[in-house]
From TrEMBL:
Full protein name: UDP-glucose 6-dehydrogenase
UniProt-listed SUPFAM superfamilies: 6-phosphogluconate dehydrogenase C-terminal domain-like, NAD(P)-binding Rossmann-fold domains, UDP-glucose/GDP-mannose dehydrogenase C-terminal domain
Pfam annotation, one family: UDPG_MGDP_dh_C
Organism, scientific name: Actinoplanes siamensis
Binding site for substrate: 157-160, 212, 257-261, 265, 331
UDP-glucose/GDP-mannose dehydrogenase C-terminal domain boundaries: 324-425
Amino acid sequence: MTARPRLTVIGTGYLGATHAICMAVLGLEVLGVDVDADKVDRLNSGVVPFFEPGLPELLTKALESGRLRFTTSFREAAAFGDVHFLCVGTPQRADSEAADLTYLDAAVTSLAPHLDRRVLVAGKSTVPVGTAARIAARLRELAPAGDQVELAWNPEFLREGFAVDDTMRPDRLVFGVTSDWARDRLRAAFQPVLAQDVPVKVTDLQTAELVKVAANSFLATKISYINAMAEVCEATGADVHDLAEALAYDERIGGRFLRPGLGFGGGCLPKDIRAFAHRAEELGVGQAVGFLREIDGINRRRRARTVDLVVASCGGDVAGKRVAALGAAFKPNSDDIRDAPALDVAATLRRMGAEVVVYDPAAMDNARRAHPELGYATSALDAARDADVVVLLTEWNEFREIAPSALAAVVRRTRMVDGRHALVPAVWAAAGWDYRAL
Ligand code: UGA
């Protein structure tokens, strides 16, 4: 076997496509694998099927280098790869708060029967603790190479919008392994990343699985903590921004992930804390992480309170009112609308009888598919035409740059509800707007 292993990346969604592209750019030979033939064709022809700054350029570069291609064939993947990364999604189940492991199990069942030599399979997907041990046993059972097929767990911490940087220069790598051989295979796979002095934590499978959910739970807790403080501030007239700034000077607390507002969404934080609480209950330690339910509750309340603020700004009723919703993605620099607070608020206002017109710089197609009941515009100003109230729901830079006078020229009423604290209140108030924020 060559010192530098050949990699496969199974599942070319957000995580897998980014991992495959970045590893190829870093000099490794990579084969991406997906059951979706259309996605495979698009990637092979240089099209990234989602919005991520910098990634399309790197895909072109990786394809031109000849080190990256994509396939639907697991047989080909098994013949090619020395290390197989499992990057399929683990969404929330439709019928409970648990993680849906269908795609992961299907990937293992498709790959394993072709594994006829010593290889490493490395899981990257976010999973309930204990999943890796189950998959390791399944691989041994299904693979012709039996015990020669080892499993490692290598959680991924990338953020959408910063995925390239987070993959090329991660804060840390976590290798959950059961042998020195597996550890050394991972070291070889990540050699170009490790060359930049990235810290590595080598640990067991279950700790590696837990690091990921513990990290996301901590981040969710930080956001809900400041949003809980915001609720108290609202009741007392205190200023949560001054509070957050004052807290942040304490290096033990730090200032990141302390931005109050509409709260967290996306395909990770909300479902991960629910799946973690669920798994902990199964393990008999539900009480230990019972606070995560409260974190989820505080987060959901932010959406309800934003709706209340819009209703209040319209004088108590939004029925028949025209609402301009600026933003649909769960955060800026993303077209991801999974569990997006913005669309949740927009859809709730629509259910209450408002006519809601949405504009988002990147997530329009996804939003339209998920919420055909909402109206859509081609720009922020277009969305705001004749609006009774404008609601800022995702803090894209282009919304921060809107001049109050330009917006005032097209709306029916100058009412602004800033769900993300993205605007300067004094500027809008001075321009004659009824400016409100949570
Ligand atoms: C999150 C984690 O940050 C990543 O480390 C992790 O790898 C990823 O989930 C995952 O599990 O795959 P991501 O979902 O891309 O990454 O987005 P974040 O930047 O974490 O933002 C999550 C949400 O929190 C967004 O809706 C954002 O608007 C909100 N947020 C963030 C706040 O409301 N306040 C803050 O101060 C920070």
